[in-house]
Amino acid sequence: MRFSKAFIPTQKEIPADATIPSHQLMLRAGLMRQLTAGVYVYLPLGYKAMLKAMEVVREEMNAIGGQEIYMPALTPKSVWETTGRWDKIDVLFKLIGRDKKDYALGSTHEEIVTPLVKQYVNSYKDLPLAVYQIQDKFRDEPRAKSGLLRGREFSMKDLYSFHLDEADFESYYAKAREAYLKIFSRCGLDAIVVEASGGDFSRFSHEFQVVTPFGEDTIFTCECGFAQNKEIVEVGEGDKCPACEKGKIKKERSIEVGNIFPLKTRFTDAFDFKVMGADGKMKDILMGCYGIGPSRVMGSIVEIHNDKDGIIWPKEVAPFDIHLVEISGKNEGIRDAALSLYDELVHNGIEVLYDDRDVRPGEKFADADLIGIPLRLVVSERSMGEGGVEWKLRNEKDNRIVKMDEIHDVMEEYVKK
Amino acid sequence: MRFSKAFIPTQKEIPADATIPSHQLMLRAGLMRQLTAGVYVYLPLGYKAMLKAMEVVREEMNAIGGQEIYMPALTPKSVWETTGRWDKIDVLFKLIGRDKKDYALGSTHEEIVTPLVKQYVNSYKDLPLAVYQIQDKFRDEPRAKSGLLRGREFSMKDLYSFHLDEADFESYYAKAREAYLKIFSRCGLDAIVVEASGGDFSRFSHEFQVVTPFGEDTIFTCECGFAQNKEIVEVGEGDKCPACEKGKIKKERSIEVGNIFPLKTRFTDAFDFKVMGADGKMKDILMGCYGIGPSRVMGSIVEIHNDKDGIIWPKEVAPFDIHLVEISGKNEGIRDAALSLYDELVHNGIEVLYDDRDVRPGEKFADADLIGIPLRLVVSERSMGEGGVEWKLRNEKDNRIVKMDEIHDVMEEYVKK
């Protein structure tokens, strides 16, 4: 993508309405903009990063046997009445169609997926089953805030699993937990598994929390691995850890990037979903749900991976692989060298943002710092004089100059998956 | 994907509520199911095909310089008031948030994209610009019908282009038209470009229509290329063609799979979006919009590509590359041969639906015919006896048997892109 033709509206000024660093950076780097409270437009750079995060999620969900489906946002009142949640979920957006019927915009999809699976699954032989979707949720949050951290319309991956017995459920729940840690690790997020309330039907659910001073959650942790959400914790900061009985409890601010929840028979009972077992008797079905918000993950990545000059994307979710900066000063030889390098990279399947704009070098570097593509390549008069192109490699670990003849080796190492 | 674990609920019976062939086939092949009038759930097979159609659309939109963005469904009343469409669009779903404000669910996105682009584009140097999204639209259709052909919630690719003058607009419009024909051709659809009403602001818009007896549109065509929608046509069936003055006009039923529309200054004027030209004067901006519905494309593909036994997917949009049918009769040798072939294919990046179910061969073949993956591979006792696996190649052009040692050559030819 040539920067001169790209819709990447970067800005120097810190937007007045954004208070936390990730929100400021996402607006300044031209990733997104707010349409109305808690409702965002994703611009090309932001949407590219989000599609990459979605692909990571999709791969790991497929790896644990999840089958991708797609459920609608427009859902009839009747299914929410069956579970008693029409009046209970206060963030449900409700509307009336021309047919005079009531609808809700899905804030979650247990009410859709449970009768869907019930319709087709009649025998114990069809279980276990896990289906998921990557789809937009609507929640009429009274205080939509903090950029992508609490939206009224936001992307979500929600997986639902169905099991015949506790052991099978527990084993899948553990597998999903590992898959989640893998997703966050691939996205450059160091997530902690935190115990949270299990509602009426289970002792705990589990949240995946990323520690950051601007998080809106509070968690209590110990070095031994103990971690609980403030809603259920019974100790305070500095207390002796109730798990290892040695360490001291730390209190930290964090962002919730995912959660997994043992629903047990809460929804299968409501929809009277049972199957015939091998012994001819009707059996209860245990259910789990597993959520990750790709937009929230993106917000968290930006919150964690930045420095004073801008974002520093982890490789797997970077909107581009390489940021190619041409400093030509109208010199056609330099321009040609940059262009032919661009063509070669693109031809090799590498995604390149090529800054061919007619602006000052300082502006190009400032934008490159702000946008934060992990690898940067600079073609300038200086590098041409030395008979090679200077590759300035910049990421969290490294900041060095690579010569033209080394480019292909380094490319292998840094870019190829 | 192993069929025994797959969520592919095929059914023999023709569903009572589906009247047209594509709708019946999509339900019977387990591609989707209706949640409520005009609102569908896509099951794994259907969603896989739809993701492939979306990828074709994405590639061709990128090829004409479209930049992918993502706009929300939840949109504030104010933007619809600016264009006077809050009361004018009768299919607009409206709702009120907790904040007591009015919102509409986007039925189209001119009202969002125009002020978005206006915010960032200030100079003639930033134009032309083309942005698109693949996103769900909501339309409160009074008669939602015909499976995916008229839904109340449906996927849509909408591209919007912005230009400084008529010549640039016309040239892009022609490019988009070619891109559309390429998309339909890749999806196995033989689309005709049909002139339709241009509303108040332009002589014509253009629809892409696929001729089928179950289409809900009516078009009038001549062999010379003349084609008009019934809304604007001034001739009848059998009349002399007004274009070539030789051929006779044919009247045909068809499905609209896409449309492109010269919006000219209809929306840029409404939002007072002008830019400074090279001569320092403010210039009007011309706009075009270009729509394709991936779900409608999928419905049309199924409508066109089927025989009495089921769907026959075109290669590019088939949910799987190969349907591997194992007829083992509990023979472990055959089962092992099928499994190792499955592993090899998957390892080579080929998407395989492997029917490892413990059901009668007749049921496996009936499901394979119904689901319609273009290539079928059968591993049975007979093929083992001959020392090779029998590959039954079935698509619209071909129906033959390939021996094991030819498999890799044929695979290259048929599967690799």
Q: Termini distance of chain A?
A: 20 Å
Which two protein chains have the largest interface (Cβ within 8 Å of the partner's Cβ), and how many residues from each?
A-B, 51 and 51 residues
CATH topology (fold) name of the largest domain in chain A? BirA Bifunctional Protein, domain 2
What is the C-alpha radius of gyration of chain A, as a whole number of Å? 25 Å
Low-confidence stretches of chain A: none
Helix content of chain A: 25-40%
CATH homologous group name of the largest domain in chain A: Bira Bifunctional Protein, Domain 2
The count of strands of chain A amounts to 23
- So what's the overall shape of chain A? elongated
Number of domains of chain A: 2
Quaternary status of these chains?
homodimer
Mean pLDDT of chain A: 91
Q: Could you describe the largest sheet of chain A, including whether it forms a barrel?
A: 9 strands, mixed
CATH 2nd-level architecture of the largest domain in chain A: 2-Layer Sandwich
Name of the CATH class of the largest domain in chain A:
Alpha Beta
Structural class of chain A: alpha+beta
- Helical stretch tally of chain A: 11
Beta-strand percentage range of chain A:
25-35%
What's the short version?
The structure is a homodimer of 417-residue chains. The first copy, chain A, is 29% helix and 29% strand.
Description:
Two copies of one chain form a homodimer. By secondary structure, the first copy, chain A, is an alpha+beta fold. Chain A has two domains: 260 residues, BirA Bifunctional Protein, domain 2 (2-Layer Sandwich), CATH 3.30.930.10; 95 residues, Anticodon-binding domain (Rossmann fold, 3-Layer(aba) Sandwich). The first copy, chain A, is built from eleven helices and 23 strands. Chains A and B meet through strand 1, strand 2, helix 2, strand 3 and strand 4 of A and strand 1, strand 2, helix 2, strand 3 and strand 4 of B.
